[in-house]
Amino acid sequence: MTFFSILFALIAEQYRPVTANHWIARISIRWLDWVASEFGGKTEQGASPVGARMACLVAFILPTFLVFALYVVFMVTYPILGFLWNILIAYLFFGFRQFSHSFTAVHEAITNHDLPAARLALSAWYGPELDASNLTEAEVISLALERAIIGSHRHVFGVLFWFMMPMGPAGVVLYRLADTAAQRWSEKGDFNLSESARHFFFVLDWIPSRITAMGFAIVGNFEGAVYAWRHLTQKWSDSLSAVILAAGSGALGVRLGEPMSEPDSDEALRMAEAGEPVFYEVGLEPNERTMRSAIGLVWRLVIAWMALLLMLTTALWLG
Question: What sections of the protein cross the membrane (predicted)?
Fold first, then answer.
């Protein structure tokens, strides 16, 4: 059932995309804003630590329990309704088009050698947090790749992982709400709420992020992905994103993130003699071809996931 639920949801999402302005996204944001308003403002830093943890429980557990309860009722009474419920939840919370549309806009501008248009598309994607007016073409491509790699994990591969858990569609809702809250509450400036949401999401995403990184290594440049994963994650401040971005950059064979300072030959020799690790940048500067390669990398991993699910489904049927 899981394989066909995801397959039908992916097909439906290609024909009628669930964008960032979709009604389910608006309802999720309103729900999180209401919870933040009820539990926030208790201290100078916003919600109290206890209140922030309670806000996470209310914001995430209540919708998750509702979705799971309906799933159980449907499966016990009419399994076909449970199947349709799976498809609906997967369709609403998968989000290929939430990042692929913006990535395509940047990619098309780069393909047409229109750097100003690429900067505008990137600025619209990132929002006020990024000033892209003076970025070079390589920097625009690098930032677009980073955003797309993280988006592919949080809207596709992380969702797939939680959909395969015993909670089924409820796991999908839990994961996506936690991710949305971590971003939304950070924008509101409530320190305790945002920290609690980030910690909650860290726990949920620790295993899926590493599975996605391993997936990139398998379907891409394995040696480059493993090297970058082991030695270059310090280039990004967020530990979850760092694992995915390092493995993704290594799998594509390109350099992403802030450049590392490489020691000169004398310093490298001294570090080697002292037994200290010496790490160097690997890969080429990203270009338009890299963007096409990234699309292929993501789709290869999607196909690998679906093939694995199909084999598991077939094994269960035959068993």
Answer: 156-178, 211-229, 297-318
pLDDT > 90: what percent of the chain?
Answer: 55
Q: What is the dihedral of CA 96, 97, 99, 101, to 10 degrees?
A: 140
Please state, rounded to an integer, the average pLDDT across all residues of the chain. 86
Those residues whose C-beta lies under 8 Å from the C-beta of residue 190, and which sit 6 or more positions away, are: 36, 40, 45, 46, 47, 52
Identify the CA nearest to 100 among candidates 252, 302, 309, 308.
302
* pLDDT recorded at residue 40: 67
What are the helix (H) ranges across the chain? 2-15, 23-39, 49-56, 62-77, 79-93, 96-111, 115-126, 137-152, 158-163, 169-187, 191-219, 222-231, 239-252, 265-273, 288-318
Q: pLDDT at position 20, please?
A: 73
Burial of 137 (0-12, 13-18, 19+ CB in 10 A): middle
Cross-strand pairs, 254:
284
**DSSP string of 212-246?**
HHHHHHHHS-HHHHHHHHHHSGGGSSSHHHHHHHH
Alpha-carbon separation of residue 54 from 27, 33, 40, 192, 201 (angstroms): 20, 14, 11, 11, 15
Q: How far apart are CA 93 and CA 116, in angstroms?
A: 33
Residue 9: the pLDDT is 87
Three-state DSSP class for 315?
Answer: helix
What is the C-alpha to C-alpha distance for residues 241 and 176, in angstroms, rounded to an integer? 16
